[in-house]
Amino acid sequence: MRACTAGQVVLSVLAFILACTPASAQSPPPGLILQADEGERRARRTGDFPFILKVDKKNGGSTDMVMGMEDLKPGQAIPPHRHLHADEIVFIHKGTAEVMLGEQKAIVREGGTVYIPRNVRIALKNPGPGTLTIVFVFPKPGFEDYLRDTSAPEGQAMPPMSPEARAQIRAKHEWHTIYDQR
Question: How far is CA 58 from the centre of its chain?
Fold first, then answer.
């Protein structure tokens, strides 16, 4: 058996640690600086709902955070749903929102914040007359995958989504988000 010096042992341990450490821990992503209109611009296939995914694993390399912005025209709504594995924060960036959070109903004006604990029902509607712009933040990934599955990059053809296709996509993402039956 060969004797090892203390230096060889330390180098062996360091090599082992580096080999077993995820790449993300070795070199963090550089971060992002985004203007209001920058990010992954998309539009929902179920209506004219443009949104921007700003921060997630694909945009900025975050494995923990998801952030985006969404515009709702007067009368448009985000249907009642709940997120099973993550809290959510919605910030009213522009306009006014009619919010239903659990059993609470409120009008939330520009600059207002809605905190949605996991598994609590949420719905938003733009009562008009102008565009409602919201910022949404999740501390865990998941919802952005649903958003990508139900949208297309801005400017691309928007294939219509049948009720059956929407049901299949929602079923695929039920581990994260449950929509009320309609």
Answer: 11
CA distances in angstroms from 54 to 38, 44, 118, 164, listed in the order given: 7, 16, 22, 29
- In this prediction, residue 6 carries a pLDDT of 46
List, as own/partner pairs, every contact residues 107-116 make where C-beta atoms lie below 8 angstroms and the sequence separation is at least 24, other chains included.
113/89, 114/89, 114/90, 115/87, 115/88, 115/89, 116/83, 116/87, 116/88, 116/89, 116/90
CA-CA distances (angstroms) from residue 49 to 5, 69, 103, 140? 64, 11, 26, 23
Alpha helix (H) ranges present in 1-138?
Answer: 6-20, 23-26
Beta bridge partners of 167: none
- DSSP characters over 122-172: EEEE--SSS-EEEEEEESSSSHHHHHHHTEEETTS------HHHHHHHHHH
Fold of 30-179: Jelly Rolls (2.60.120)
Residue ranges of domains in the chain:
30-179
Q: 121-156, pLDDT tens digit by residue? A: 999 999 989 999 999 999 988 889 888 988 889 888
Q: What does the block give as tokens for 145?
A: 């995958």
